[in-house]
Amino acid sequence: MSDKDSKVEKKQISILGCGWLGFPLAQRLRSRHSTWQIKGSTTSVSKIDTFVEKGIEGYLLPLDPEFNVENSWLHSFFDVDTLIISLPPRLYKHEPGFYIKQIESIISEIKTSKINDIIFISSTGIYPELNRTVVEDDVKTPKESASPEMVAAENLLTELRPDHNVTILRLGGLLGYNRIPGKYVQGQKDMTTGSIPVNYIHRDDAAEIIITILEAGVFNETFNIVAPGHTTRREVYEKSCTQFGWETPTFAKTDEKPDFKVISAEKFNQHYKYDFKFADPLQFYYSLEDHEA
């Protein structure tokens, strides 16, 4: 075993928001690196036993928008060297500013902890429809963004640099397993968005990319994370509906071209070596049940 391997195997990781992406990620980390200490948070009491069964230390951590839990419990969760923040903003459910207050609560805990490396799961939904290929530098401020609150959250976390290593991952539309694109549009009529190129990422690739970053080292950078293929929504919808026997949507004939964006992941490719398992969104793996849940 090399010195590097020995150092890596002592890693302690907490995943704040151990949900649809975070929980499979935790399981992969636990199975891949048996000596790593993996902690995961949830707001559901029923999930704690499931975490324990998988060798993951489970923490019940409500964040409304401050942490409502005993200090000793909170201190234990943040007593790690690496924190992954996978906290969906759910902006439609809360008043403006709620998500920012959540991030501020997290940062407050980070500042009193030994955490050195931080990975924040953001979204390519922050990009407006610019009708071209977009890169990370196209959105740096809330004013430039289609989701100002998400970018404001990113910026709060990047203010922790250089005292902490902070990687921002702007993930494309997360799909795979029981998140099937055709499920959400089956039977719809005269859709006008069929020609729009997709910016998707399969959950398996998202999890493996995070593991790649953890193993290779966390950079103070922002990366787009999307599959290389950008086929059209129509092709994706039709194929997944056909696969599961659902009624395919219909598409209106129009000369008007809808606004679009093509997300570039070239910056990530320049920093890390990773071979996509699902490079083509038409080849994503789906199932009616979530096998890793």
What does this structure look like?
The chain is an alpha/beta fold and 293 residues long. The protein has a single domain (3-176, 200-230, 261-283), classed as NAD(P)-binding Rossmann-like Domain (Rossmann fold), CATH 3.40.50. Helix content is 30%, strand content 16%. It contains nine helices and eleven strands. The strands form three sheets. Strands 3-2-1-4-5-7-10 form a seven-stranded parallel sheet, with helices on both faces. The chain has a two-stranded parallel sheet with strand order 6-11. Strands 8-9 form a two-stranded parallel ribbon. Strand 4, helix 5 and strand 5 (117-123) form a beta-alpha-beta unit. Helix 2 (22-32) crosses helix 7 and helix 5 runs parallel beside helix 6 (148-158). The longest helix has 14 residues, at 98-111. The chain is globular and about 60 Å long.
Number of domains: 1
Please indicate the percent range of residues in DSSP E strands (runs of 2 or more). Answer: 15-25%
Shape: globular
Estimate the helix proportion, in percent: 25-40%
Spatial order of the strands forming the largest sheet: 3-2-1-4-5-7-10
Q: What is the CATH third-level topology name?
A: Rossmann fold
- Quick one: CATH superfamily? NAD(P)-binding Rossmann-like Domain
Any guess at the CATH architecture? Answer: 3-Layer(aba) Sandwich
Largest sheet: 7 strands, parallel
- Multimerization status: single chain
> So how many helices?
9
Cα distance spanning the termini: 33 Å
Instruction: Tell me the name of the CATH class.
Output: Alpha Beta
Q: Would you tell me the structural class of the helices and strands?
A: alpha/beta
> What is the average per-residue confidence, as pLDDT, rounded to a whole number?
93
From the alpha carbons, calculate the radius of gyration and give it in angstroms.
20 Å
